[in-house]
Amino acid sequence: MLYRSNAAEAWYSDSPTGAVQAEIPLDLLPPASLTQPLWRSLAGNLRDTFAPEKLPPLILTSRPVNTGLALGDRLRLPWFRTVFTNIGDMISPEALPPLELESRPVDVGELITDQLSRLWVGSLLRNLADRVAPETQPALNLTSKPILDIIPKSWILLPMWSEVLDTPKVFYPDKPKPTDAPRPINLQPAALAEEKQEALVTEATAAGLLRDIRRSRIRQRIWIGLATAQILYMVLAATGKI
């Protein structure tokens, strides 16, 4: 397989046209270190730890970019450092150089925020002017060809049968109700005589129930009073009367 990269063009710049290029074998198999035994991998890791291979210094052809404080170092800072930094940026922000734009600005007309900030009278007059004397626009240049027959002539469009038929409306009678339908049972409590009511009140369970109801009503009034006092205090504090 012939292979030639941009970096290898300097190697063959002096070669005559039509010279045979070097053939670099393409090997897509996994590396041999993937199938080596465990003890050999462990020995290689120990050798790299205690006696690492001496490599030549790294030569960088690109210029480093100052990105400021790294994200990991920024997350390790204490919380008060970030507070002081934010206060400093708010009081005396960093003076940055002017932004250099390489793209050309495009005139988009009036912004939507500027249109919404105007009064409704200007919008009404503009709509009336467009209705009476609309602006003449140039002819639209279409690059695509129009389709003459969107629906083929061999097709037949048939309307729905409900749109074609015109018949009077027919109302079917209601279904007859079954004769043996169970009647609803009225489970309203029957009125007791005054003597029976007094007898029930005198019982121990009824007296305890009435006492619990009376206490719950007292607690309800207390909680409602406390909530009303709290709301009144918040209103007075908000208005500055306290």
By DSSP, the count of extended strands is 0
> What percent of the residues sit in helical stretches (DSSP H or I)?
40-55%
Report mean pLDDT, rounded to a whole number. Answer: 77
How far apart the termini lie comes to: 90 Å
Please work out how many helical segments DSSP would assign: 8
Compute the gyration radius: what is it? 46 Å
Could you give the order of the helices and strands?
Answer: HHHHHHHH
Strand content: under 5%
Low-confidence stretches: 1-19
Major sheet: none
Which structural class best describes the helix and strand composition? mainly alpha
Outline type: extended
Q: What key phrases describe this protein's structure?
A:
8 helices; disordered N terminus; extended; mainly alpha; 242 residues
Quick gist of this model?
With 242 residues, the chain is mainly alpha-helical. Helix content is 41%, strand content 0%.
Topology:
Elements: H1 38-50, H2 71-75, H3 79-91, H4 112-117, H5 120-132, H6 161-164, H7 194-202, H8 204-239
Characterise this structure.
The longest helix is centred in the last third of the chain and has 36 residues, at 204-239. Helix content is 41%, strand content 0%. Mean pLDDT is 77; it is low at 1-19. It is mostly helical and 242 residues long. It has helices at residues 38-50, 71-75, 79-91, 112-117, 120-132, 161-164, 194-202, 204-239. It has a domain at 201-239.
